[in-house]
Amino acid sequence: MNEVYHIPAMLKETIEGLAIKPDGVYVDVTFGGGGHSRAILEAIDNSQCTIDNSQRAGESSVQKGKLFSFDQDEDALRNAIDDPRWTFVHSNFRYLKNWMDYYGVEQIDGLLADLGVSFHHFDCPERGFSFRYSAPLDMRMNQTAKRTAADIVNSYSEEELARLFWLYGEMKNGRSIARNICAKRAQAPILRTEELIAAALKLSAISYQPSDGIESRWSLGNTGSPEELGIPTNAKKDLAKLFQALRIEVNDEMGALREMLVAARDLLKPGGRIAVLTYHSLEDRLVKNFFRSGNLEGTIEKDFYGNALTPFDVIEKGRTASDDEVERNPRSRSAKLRVAETLTMHNAQCTMHKGLMRFGTN
Ligand SMILES: C[S@@+](CC[C@H](N)C(=O)[O-])C[C@H]1O[C@@H](n2cnc3c(N)ncnc32)[C@H](O)[C@@H]1O
């Protein structure tokens, strides 16, 4: 297969952000094509080559650095890394804590999450992630999961669909699209991507004529660019949002992210780092507020002196890919890198000291 499984976004910036320690235990919760994982392993290696002053005479120089890589899609295993320091965990990252317990890992030095789907998902027609291909409405990252996009499209109420399109797709016309879908599915279940597209566009504000439109062309088994398929240019953005919203719901991406963030916070050592690459505003807001506050509610607790009590020092606040990278890899355009470090006792004491000083001068 010549397919490019994935091109990692902001690789250099992410690895720098993790400030990898030679003997550290790291977790990449989104293995995908393994680009980031390989770079983490290399960074462990490179640092190991430098002289470690703390190494006492006679102590074995066995590599202690370890990397656990999660992916819920077993296709990712095609990119397996042959390295004794590497362990693949075929699981949803929401079970991070359980798996670390299973492997006897109490604390970790760093964690990377490169959220969402890989190029492979979009470029694999039969998985149903892309509106460019005629395919069953599937969109499951975990191919053994029960619920597909077709289940959602055909079982959610109009209200639930509208809410979903608004919440996860930020679609201003989500309500009318939900209405169109419900009208269409009353005639027959919507089971394929082209049926969903026809349902969503036909009755929406977009001027789409089914007679010269995509349904007939799709039925010939065509795949190709939206232009070739006759999808109106002004509908592409809406379709991208519609497919994104469904994908997020099918895979409960926000729920999994919430659970993983809490587990990561509890697993990270003082001075450990967490790097997250987000791709849409909803997940980015969640990560940003979590890093600021250390909790899912985003509420910043204060101590007696009015100092913010947060477990993190925020290192990167939403860095984006360089123009060069976007040119080379257009899909990196929407990536935002956020990095946080768990406060060490030293930092926590400095914060408290600053509070005392402020209290004293007031
Ligand atoms: C953007 S890709 C990561 C690409 C990777 N950084 C690389 O260098 O190739 C995201 C990957 O994470 C996986 N994934 C997404 N959500 C997940 C979850 N909740 N649990 C486990 N894997 C997940 C997807 O299957 C996909 O392979």
If you had to describe this structure to a student in words, what would you say it looks like?
The longest helix is centred in the last third of the chain and has 18 residues, at 233-250. 43% of the residues lie in helices and 14% in strands. The protein is α/β, with parallel strands linked by helices. It has a seven-stranded mixed β-sheet with strand order 3-2-1-4-5-9-8, sandwiched between helices. The chain has helices at residues 11-18, 35-49, 96-102, 119-123, 149-155, 158-169, 174-185, 193-202, 214-219, 226-229, 233-250, 253-267, 281-293, 323-328, 345-361, and strands spanning 25-28, 66-70, 86-89, 108-114, 268-278, 301-302, 308-309, 312-320, 336-342. The chain is globular, with a radius of gyration of 23 Å. Among the domains are: 80-116 and 267-320 and 342-362, no CATH class; 120-252, Orthogonal Bundle (DNA polymerase, domain 1). Bound molecules: S-adenosylmethionine.
How large a portion of the residues is in β-strands, by DSSP E? 5-15%
What is the approximate shape?
globular
CATH architecture of the domain at 120-252: Orthogonal Bundle
Low-confidence stretches: 48-61, 203-224, 353-362
Output the CATH topology of the domain at 120-252.
Answer: DNA polymerase, domain 1
Subunit organisation of the chains: single chain
Rounded to the nearest angstrom, the distance between the terminal CA atoms is 68 Å
Q: What's the alpha carbon Rg, rounded to whole Å? A: 23 Å
Q: Write out the strand line-up for the largest beta sheet, numbering strands in chain order.
A: 3-2-1-4-5-9-8
Task: Calculate the mean pLDDT score and round it.
Answer: 85
Characterize the biggest β-sheet: 7 strands, mixed
**Class by alpha and beta content:** alpha/beta
